[in-house]
Amino acid sequence: MDRRLIGALVVIAAVLLAGCAGVSGDPAATGATDAAPDRTVEVTADGEATAEPDRATITVAVEARGNSSQAVREEIAADESELRSALADWGIPDDRIRTTRYDIRERRPRPEAEREGAEPEYVGVHQYEIELHDVDAVGEVIDVAVDAGADRVQRVQFGLSEEREAELRTTAFENAVENADGRARMLANNTGLEIVDVYTISTMDDHVSPYRAEPMAVTEDAAGNGGATTSIETGDVSVDVQVHVVFEAETTD
Fold first, then answer.
1. Where residue 173 sits, what CATH number does that domain have?
2. What's the pTM?
3. Who contacts 9 (Cβ-Cβ below 8 Å, separation ≥6)?
4. What does the alpha-carbon distance between residue 14 and residue 171 come to, in Å, rounded to a whole number?
5. Segment 189-242, tens digit of pLDDT
6. CA distances from 162 to 44, 168, 248, 249 (A)
7. Which of 119, 129, 123 is nearest to 84 (CA)?
8. Ordered DSSP codes for 51-117
9. Sign of the dihedral through C-alpha 14, 52, 147, 223
10. How far is it, in rounded angstroms, from Cα 34 to Cα 64?
11. How many CB atoms lie within 10 A of CB 144?
């Protein structure tokens, strides 16, 4: 493997990371008049990098039922105040708690119940995302939220800080371009060609796959019983990158 060519590919990948969709190694791209290469080898390759998470997001919800929308609003507001206060006491600033859903709707009784004089019921949900910078504290924060009145833990998601994600993306790009180089050389060796340069490179796909834990409903026995701390298993976060590279080649004759 030509380490100089790999180095050039990594530099090009860094340019792609800076926001370009594609880069050309053709002198014509810089204003020269050289023609396109006579022979090329074109490949698509993937690269992956994984790491332990350093961020977590807990999605919790409080629910309320009542005979009027006003009663439901008041109950939800009281639950919000208690929840935010408990989380603040634990050490989570208010700017790391944000509303992702707020809904109050009327639930009409079934026709047979309505004929018997049943009144409509109002149901409300206030859902929050809680951002944590300490992934080891997820279980403890879930307990704090449940004890403060959260009725449901919708989701627990583990991810990366912006800095760590950028580092991992760079590693994934390096792996992708190295895989592209290896694949191109294999094709070239089997067709009487030799790879001599990079002609163009572009990104085809780039995404982060966080680790998600299963949702949990909160039972009456689990809320406020002073039992053991909730334990949440974590998993690695992965960044996947796909690149498309056109290599300039020449015959080995």
1. 3.30.110.170
2. 0.76
3. 177, 178, 180, 181, 198, 201, 245
4. 10
5. 999 999 999 999 998 889 999 999 865 555 444 445 555 578 888 899 999 999
6. 27, 10, 36, 38
7. 129
8. E--SEEEEEEEEEEEESSHHHHHHHHHHHHHHHHHHHHHHT--GGGEEEEEEEEEEEPPPHHHHHTT
9. positive
10. 71
11. 19
Both structure tokens of 65: 């039922």
Whole-angstrom Cα distance, residue 23 to residue 184? 18
Residue 234 counted as domain residue: no
Q: Which domain holds residue 183?
A: 3-52+162-208+239-251
Let me know whether 12 and 96 are in one domain: no
Give the separation between CA 88 and CA 111, rounded to whole angstroms: 46
- Strands in 22-24's sheet, in edge-to-edge order, are 22-24, 193-209, 237-251, 39-51
Alpha carbon distance 57, 48 (integer Å): 23
| Three-class secondary structure of residue 201 per DSSP | strand
What's the start-to-end Cα distance of the chain, in Å? 20
* Chain segment 182-195, per-residue pLDDT in tens: 999 999 999 999 99
CB atoms within 10 A of CB 31: 6
- Tokens 């004890």, residue located: 147
Average pLDDT (33-56) is 90
Bridge partners, residue 127, by sequence? 61, 101
Q: How far apart are CA 152 and CA 217, in angstroms?
A: 5
Name the token pair of 132: 């944590």
Domain-located, residue 231: no
Cα dist. 232→16, 150, 158, 189, 229 in Å?
37, 17, 11, 50, 10
Distance CA 142, CA 45 (A): 41
